[in-house]
Amino acid sequence: MELKDFDYDLPQELIAQYPLARGEARLMIVERSSGRITHARITDLRDFLKPGDCLVLNDTRVIKARLKGSKPTGGQVEVLLVKAVTASRWECLVKAAKAPRPGTVICFENGVTATVEMRSGDRYELRFNRPELLDELGQVPLPPYITRAPVVQDSETYQTVFALHDGSVAAPTAGLHFSRAFLDDLRARGVQIAFITLHVGPGTFQPVRTERIADHRMHVEEFSVGEEAANALNRAVAEGRRIVAVGTTSTRVMEHLMRRHGRIVPGKGATDLFITPGFSFGMVRALFTNFHLPCSTLIMLACAFGGHDLIMRAYREAVRERYRFFSYGDAMFII
Fold it and tell me: What backbone torsions phi and psi does residue 90 show, to the nearest 5 degrees?
């Protein structure tokens, strides 16, 4: 398939710039067997889940990864923390009018500095003199399609209520819709809830630049699965219960492990799994996900699960019905 097969027209005003309260967004129900599309609210999800279903969520935590500083020449620099190498050294992306060379010192507020140690491709390694202050200095790394400046509330709203493990530079946005009360309600109705971790990297925002999607290479992201979650998922499969993935990140972890081991194996790892139409899903039987960018790897995954023609028709209907798109937008449940 080609990149153009995943394109759609989206008016700018439908890109959500602020979130609604958790649970108040709209929910599109997409039925694969019949091709039927209906409209509901997030809280109606309880009516489409049944006792015994296993709902799988990503409990990664978004770090305050965006730092704004300057070079000794006065040039402005924006740093995006990607991954801690040691306590004081970070792999980063750096945006500046002129790429800083090794040895360049970048100055931030409160006496914090970073020295460029090395560069490899688009990644830099920076050594910070006071790494304990990074969280205090950093901003929530809102995605580029949210064009406003971050506000204090983003520290809470761009984080799932169950976020536990630091490491992401973008939220697993499907999980933003769930409040603690709603999760408790689902548990009371007999829905099992399992948590796995995939740290979302900056590659999630990188566009696909190849015309043939088969030529695209996916970014690598780290994950971990605890023994409790692995046992719960394997037991659910053995008992014929439905696995419901919340988000593309949870989906990729489970399908990566199923391809590699034929079951969910606890432990840490990394995946560059690129799910496109024609992919054979080994575990996920229903997918709860937000509406994604045109031509993105995320919409390709949704098309792989729901069927290309049906999902693209659903997107066109979402535009007609004035759904809210992307991270702070509405959601879709593909069953």
Answer: -130, 140
